[in-house]
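Postdoc handover notes: sequence design on the structure in folder B. Input tokens:
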């Protein structure tokens, strides 16, 4: 076992940087050190770990098998230490100028963001909320995004991230009240036969509807695919297309009150909305405040609908 009293933890920071940069000079520039200081630190690490760690190639430094083995533990350990220290630095919403990045599912952004923004302006007027689109993969953004409010099709919770369920909702089919099929019972066959306007898969991240129809030997015609929810209610009022929404949205979007709604005839399909975050940041005080605020605002909104 290494005696930590004799081990300089800064060496691990330098090791992690070299793994990222694959260059002594670029690592030195990143760390604000001289190349000779980085080379000296790497030499000390090689002696301590009894491994070359990196070898030179025409493309730059390449890690040894040993380096590849330990980098995950090094990154986890440094993240843990960083968060433990950050947790001691109290986050003060009223004076903070921090920037938080979020991904918000398009279905709920319309009713959530106005109330959330109002709350933020009262409690933390100097922070910035950056909304990042879901066109960026929902599973590979944790270096850019603090939290997600994410559509999770079905009842299962998201994998590989920390999550808290915000809402589990039924799905309804909507159309204009004088639609030619408005008076017909909504069956799976009728639903599949009508022209659909739907959110793009990059916006929702799911094909659950099409999968459920395929299991019944059915296929729908997506007449129009759009990138955001806001245009859909107006499109429905002027066409014979249909769409689906979470049932809670019927009471939260005034435009939907003018449309006819019927239960989606695919009983297994539900919409779950989850607050998700990466485990490495969950103990940091600003992050905890952000998550708690999101949950409180979301609960207030949905409880108002359920009254």
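Designed sequence:
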């Amino acid at each position: 076992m290494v005696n930590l009293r004799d081990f300089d933890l800064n060496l691990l920071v330098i090791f992690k940087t070299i793994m990222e940069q694959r260059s002594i000079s670029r690592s030195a520039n990143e760390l604000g050190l001289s190349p000779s200081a980085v080379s000296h630190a790497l030499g000390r690490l090689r002696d301590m770990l009894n491994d070359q760690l990196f070898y030179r190639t025409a493309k730059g430094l390449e890690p040894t098998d040993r380096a590849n083995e330990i980098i995950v533990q090094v990154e986890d350990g440094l993240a843990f230490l960083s968060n433990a220290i950050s947790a001691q630095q109290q986050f003060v919403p009223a004076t903070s100028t921090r920037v938080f990045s979020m991904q918000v599912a398009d279905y709920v952004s319309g009713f959530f963001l106005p109330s959330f923004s109002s709350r933020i302006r009262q409690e933390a007027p100097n922070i910035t909320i950056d909304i990042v689109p879901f066109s960026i993969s929902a599973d590979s953004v944790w270096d850019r995004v603090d939290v997600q409010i994410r559509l999770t099709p079905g009842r299962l919770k998201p994998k590989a991230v920390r999550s808290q369920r915000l809402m589990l909702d039924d799905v309804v089919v909507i159309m204009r009240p004088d639609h030619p099929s408005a008076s017909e019972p909504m069956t799976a066959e009728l639903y599949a036969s009508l022209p659909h306007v739907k959110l793009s898969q990059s916006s929702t991240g799911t094909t659950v509807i099409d999968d459920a129809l395929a299991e019944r030997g059915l296929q729908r015609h997506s007449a129009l695919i759009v990138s955001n929810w806001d245009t859909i209610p107006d499109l429905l009022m002027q066409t014979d297309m249909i769409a689906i929404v979470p049932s809670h949205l019927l009471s939260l979007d005034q435009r939907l009150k003018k449309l006819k709604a019927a239960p989606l005839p695919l009983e297994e399909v539900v919409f779950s909305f989850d607050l998700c975050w990466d485990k490495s940041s969950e103990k940091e005080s600003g992050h905890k405040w952000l998550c708690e605020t999101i949950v409180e605002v979301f609960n207030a909104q949905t409880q108002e609908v359920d009254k």
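Context for whoever picks this up: The two ends are 61 Å apart (CA to CA). Don't rerun without checking with the PI first.
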